[in-house]
Amino acid sequence: MSNPTHSHKASPSHEHGHKHGHRHAAGHEAAHASDADLAQTLNLDARLLGSYLTDATTWAAELVGRSPETIIDVGAGSGVGTLALARQFPDARITALDKSADMLAMTLAAATDNDLAGRVDSLQADLDEPWPASASADLLWASSSLHEVVAPERLLADMYAALTPGGLLVVLEMDGLPSFLPESMPGESAVPSGLEVRLHEILAGKGWNHFPEWAPVMESVGFSVERRAFPTSYIPTTREGSQDLAAQYARHFLQRIHQALADTASPADVAALELLLGGGPESLERRGDLEVRGHRTGWAARKP
Q1: In sequence order, what are the beta bridge partners of 230?
Q2: Average pLDDT, the chain
Q3: What pLDDT was estimated at residue 183?
Q4: What does DSSP assign to residue 128?
């Protein structure tokens, strides 16, 4: 989600990552995360940058043309999108579809906690397998899941067939990774300016968060497509817990980056990461300059 000028997009011929988890992911690093760790990342992302969910579901409501009766959250993860859809469309029945039984259990538990259990169902399915025959809908929602499958063209064709006439598919992708640090650090800081930009560039080379421009692929199976950007940010305030929440998300994400790049990034950048993750004056919890920044792109694909 970082600076959109550092977008990690690939061409339509890109060879897609094979995580097979079909869960809303904060990048390719989620491939090696446990369901619990991934759920924590997703929930923190939703708490701090979740305004994109309101914006994107409102966009879907404007475009769908009629109040949908059935919605499928394709790759529901921990259910943050499922709940957003349930709130935006109070008369719809929502099905959370995911490969992970644990993630589906988290989604149903979250629906119960939010008094939405009567409107949310679950369906365990592998998106690398044929689309479930019973899964038809007026609205399909796929957030950070489409780029995870082996054959997205086949899946898009299956989803086209699963939509009712005039139905809508909304696809969301992070077009960068989350950023937390100021773009320019003060001269006395032991953490150098541009640290996240350099780390994100290395991660892009490793295939994190790669996805193609989906519009041509969608159009090839029969959809008409609109595109929209969803920038989001979270600036901690003096409210109790605000700084702590930003630091928690930054620590959770930068720890994964440290694990992935400890042997790849420059020694100076690894040392800077360790200062941020340590307990000294440069630690995330003791900084007063954190700002969580994100950016997503959405495609709304309509079936005639």
Answers
A1: 296
A2: 86
A3: 83
A4: T
**Which candidate, 136, 190, 186, places its Cα nearest to that of 161?**
136
Residue 153 neighbours by CB distance under 10 Å: 13
| Run of H or E including 111 | helix 101-113
Looking at this protein, which amino acid is placed at residue 14?
H
Within its chain, how far is the Cα of 13 from the centroid?
A: 22
d(CA 71, CA 167): 10
DSSP SS3 for 42: helix
- Among residues 16, 19, 15, 39, which one has the least CA distance to residue 29? 19
* Contacts of residue 248, Cβ cutoff 8 Å, sequence gap at least 6: 44
Q: What is the pLDDT of residues 233-250, one digit of tens each?
A: 888 765 555 678 899 999
Residue owning tokens 């817990």:
241
Q: Which two tokens stand for residue 200?
A: 């994100």
- Concatenating the DSSP letter of every residue in 173-207 gives EESS--B-S-SS--TT-SSPTTHHHHHHHHHHHTT
Identify residue 229 by its one-letter amino acid code. A
User: Left (φ > 0), alpha (ψ -120 to 50) or beta: where does 29 sit?
Assistant: alpha
**CA-closest candidate to residue 6, choices 268, 230, 205:** 205
Per-residue model confidence as pLDDT tens digits over 71-88: 999 999 999 999 999 999
- The neighbouring-strand residues paired with 122 are 96
Checking if the pLDDT of 19 tops 50, the result is no
Distance, in Å, from the CA atom of 215 to the CA atom of 199, rounded to the nearest integer, reads 29
Q: How confident is the model at residue 17 (pLDDT cuts 50, 70, 90)?
A: very low
The amino acid at residue 15 is: E
With 0-12 CB in 10 A as exposed, 13-18 as middle and 19+ as buried, what is 174?
buried
- Greatest Cα pair distance, the chain, in angstroms, is 61
